[in-house]
Amino acid sequence: MELKTWSLADRPDRTEAVLAMADSWPEFVVNDLVGNAHYPRIAAELPQFVQFAEDEHGEILAHAHSVPFALHTEGRGELPARGWDEMLGWAFSDLRHAVDPDTVGAVSVVVAPHAQGHGLSALMLAAMRANAGRLGFREVVAPVRPSAKHLEPRTPMARYARRLRPDGLPHDPWLRVHARAGATFHSVAPASMTVVAPPADWRRWTGLPFDTAGEIEVPGALVPVRCEPERGYAVYVEPNVWMRHSL
Questions:
Q1: Which residue among 32, 62, 186, 242 is least crowded, i.e. fewest CB within 10 A of its CB?
Q2: How do 139-144 and 233-246 pair as beta strands?
Q3: On the CB side of 193, how many CA atoms lie within 13 Å of its CA?
Q4: Domain count for the chain
């Protein structure tokens, strides 16, 4: 398989195909309100921060989204506990107010379901890093969603993220890809993404009853979802892991 990588700034004609590429996100993840408000804006307003890979037939097999933002500025300085959500908010606030960015934040790396298992996630992470370097940035930070954490929803993220293999690399496959690319563990973002919705929505997304109060383990969720049927909602607060890539 012969692959080429591009940015949407170089190939705006591929925007529709990139955004239409199939993915494997659990449905509840794409119902984060912050993500819904900001993610589509990246391709439209920051196309130079969207990389994609296509094969020799022109099929889009993977894409990576990132955003520039000012980390080393008044009122910030530290990677936020609200991780993914806050990073997106900072990036588009900075864009609106013409604040000069100093850092690139990794928003997502997505591989088409039928193309998974062939190293494309590492390829797109490398493309994201290279793009940030070409644009003059010195660091990429990533609120990583560990790919195997959903198998252990009740294990604290701080413990899970620090688990290593005998070779010293992270136990989690996606954290391991970042580490192999040169990233180092920084901290846990305990409230990186929040999805709040009525139980009826959660029933539709998951096929589970969501009719009793308490913590419910949901396929694909990194931690249990808290259900409060008498109050009319269920809430999922996802922790991520901040990894830092020096360029």
A1: 186
A2: antiparallel
A3: 24
A4: 1
CA separation (Å) from 105 to 30, 125, 135, 167, 181?
19, 12, 13, 28, 15
CATH (domain of 87): 3.40.630.30
Dist. CA 85–CA 223, nearest whole Å: 17
Closest CA to 109 of 58, 55, 178, 47: 178
The token pair that represents 135 in the structure block: 């644009």
Query: Is 45 a member of any domain?
Result: yes
Residue at 48: amino acid letter: Q
Question: Which tokens sit at 209?
Answer: 């009853």
Q: Is residue 223 part of a domain?
A: no
Buried-exposed string 124-142: b where 16+ CB fall within 10 A, e elsewhere: bbebbbebbeeeebebbbb
Residues of the domain holding 79: 3-192+240-246
pLDDT tens for the chain, 247 residues long, are 789 999 999 999 999 999 999 999 999 999 999 999 999 999 999 999 999 999 999 999 999 999 999 999 999 999 999 999 999 999 999 999 999 999 999 999 999 999 999 999 999 999 999 999 999 999 999 999 999 999 999 999 999 999 999 999 999 999 999 999 999 999 999 999 999 999 999 999 999 999 999 999 999 999 999 999 999 999 999 999 999 999 9
Q: Residue 67 to residues 38, 48, 64, 84, 177: CA-CA distances in angstroms?
A: 10, 9, 10, 11, 20
